Amino acid sequence: MASIFSTTYAVFGKPVLHSKSPQLFSPILVKGKESYTRIRPQSAKDLVDIVRLLNIRGASITAPFKEEIFFLLEEVSPDAQAVGAVNCIRHENGKISGHNTDHYGVTGPLTEAGLILEGANILILGAGGAARAAVYGLTKAGANVSISNRTEEKAGTLAKSFDAAVVKWGSMYALPRFDAVVSTILPEAIPPDAEKLQYDMLLDAIYKPSMMTAHSRAREIPVIGGEQWLIHQGVEAAAFYIGKTPSPELLASRLYEIPDPASLRILVLTNDSLDRFTQSTYDLVVSAFGMDANTIKQLIDEEKNLAFGR
């Protein structure tokens, strides 16, 4: 049966129902011809298999697959190689290639806020994947980058990769003023002596309420929310796998729309339901190859709980 859409895009993650990628990219899709959905694969290999099986033209990649998918692709961009992770893929002429645009989610909002990155002094909190993308983008732009992480060894490893400095966690009192702090730590985390930290603005990678955001606002320090990170990396991701370069304002126009939990369209993807994927749009597609009914129900309930808190 022929598909009602000529082109399908997706975001892959586990969990994934909370993802705002469909809202982010929907303003630039051709209505009735292009569609966008959320897909929960069982593994990175399953992700690649689904892209080929369903002929997904391009996709955003989120946790926990950014690093896992890296070695399963035919080609990865220099940016993805430098960061060691892929956050978007393009499926073209039978080849799946990967790219990483997360660093634009850091440099774009800071530049938009008026910060000249070359020569700027910037502190990164955290040393995970998001921090690595931030350090890469900022050092590439000529900023002076320092990294602070609860586990100092991880900060040191990251700093060595990009010739950045390390700041001992809990020694903020001894630091000079920073032009900006980029926080990639968990929402409930905060340096123990954060009140001693002097900085002009905060970019928070999290778009949930966080202690760093609350602390900064209490001190009347300007905060750039995680939505701006999402939007600016999305501009470059759209160029890579959709072939369009929208403005940040256009991508933001539907970002805060929320699916109705009472009328979610969910497809349980099996060999028997493949044709259904091409005949409608879905809020969530769950890869269920080889799974029993109880496991499938548990996964869907988990997705709903994480997305809607119920």
Keywords:
310 residues; alpha/beta; Rossmann fold; 2 domains; 34% helix
Protein model, in words:
The protein is an alpha/beta fold and 310 residues long. The protein has 2 domains: 7-100 and 230-308, Rossmann fold (3-Layer(aba) Sandwich), CATH 3.40.50; 104-224, 3-Layer(aba) Sandwich (Rossmann fold), CATH 3.40.50.720. It is 34% helix and 19% strand. The chain contains 12 helices and 14 strands. It has helices spanning 21-25, 44-53, 65-68, 78-83, 104-112, 129-140, 152-162, 211-218, 226-241, 248-252, 274-277, 293-308; strands at residues 7-12, 34-40, 58-61, 75-76, 88-92, 95-99, 121-125, 144-148, 165-166, 180-183, 202-204, 223-224, 266-269, 284-287. It has an 8-stranded mixed beta sheet, with helices on both faces. A 6-stranded parallel beta sheet has the order 9-8-7-10-11-12. Helix 6 links the parallel strand 7 and strand 8. The protein is globular and about 65 Å long. The two termini are 37 Å apart.
